[in-house]
Each structure stands twice: as C-alpha cells, then as structure tokens.
Write a structure and sequence with these properties.
Layout (H helix, E strand, L loop, with lengths): L19 E11 L2 E10 L3 E5 L9 E7 L6 E12 L3 E7 L3 H23 L1
Antiparallel strand pairs: 1-2, 1-4, 2-3, 3-6, 4-5, 5-6
C-alpha cells in the first residue's frame, strides 16, 4: 500500500473533534464483506483506517477493535465519510452509545497527555 502523507489528501479539513494517534487493528464489516485495516487515529466522532481496499463512501459498516490498555472489544456502527483507493478511509461513528463515547474520550485524553509529556522531555 503506498504511503499517504499529511497534506497529500485534497479533502478539506472538517473535523470538529480532536484526534489522537492510534495504531491498532480494526475489523470492518459491511454485509458479507469483512476487511482488516489499521486504525491510525481516533476521536469521539470517528477514525482513520488504513487499508488497501477501502469501502465506498456512505457505506454503513460495523467496526470491531480494542483500545490500547483495555481488554474489552468495542463493536460499533460507522459510516464511510471519505475513501482514498489503495490507501485509507475515514469513518464517522453512528449512534455511538454513551459508555463507548466515554471510553474513547478517556483514551484520547490519556493519549494526548502522554504525548505532551514526551514532547516536554
């Protein structure tokens, strides 16, 4: 899969929520199609998933993943917001339950704090 670097995607910046780095496997299901990807970042509104076979925009999918430091597997619904062939797809969470929202918020806050501590060293 060819690398895509920051600034190479021509889409406009529309994020309302801060994203933090996340490098974990994620399973994406749509009907009978299942693909594996690597989640690169996450926020309370969605995530960026690197995959050679991104699903089409507006596709409703189910995601399965485990946040670092947790043993609980998360399963949630999402919509493909944008897709770049042979590279990645950005997904937006759909009807995220409050408990999952809180877990993602907690992870994002912890990851951001850890990053700031490393930068200050």
């Amino acid at each position: 899969m060819p690398p895509v670097h920051v600034g190479e995607w021509s889409g406009g910046e529309k994020r309302r929520h801060k994203r933090v780095s996340l490098h974990i496997p994620v399973e994406c299901r749509s009907g009978r199609v299942t693909l594996e990807g690597l989640a690169e970042n996450i926020s309370t509104s969605g995530m960026l998933i690197r995959t050679a076979t991104p699903l089409p925009e507006d596709e409703e999918i189910t995601l399965r993943f485990t946040l670092p430091g947790s043993s609980d597997r998360i399963e949630c619904r999402a919509r493909v917001a944008h897709s770049v062939p042979d590279a990645f797809m950005g997904v937006e969470f759909v009807d995220l339950p409050e408990d999952l929202l809180e877990r993602i918020e907690e992870y994002a806050a912890t990851a951001a704090t850890a990053l700031q501590a490393r930068i200050k060293k």
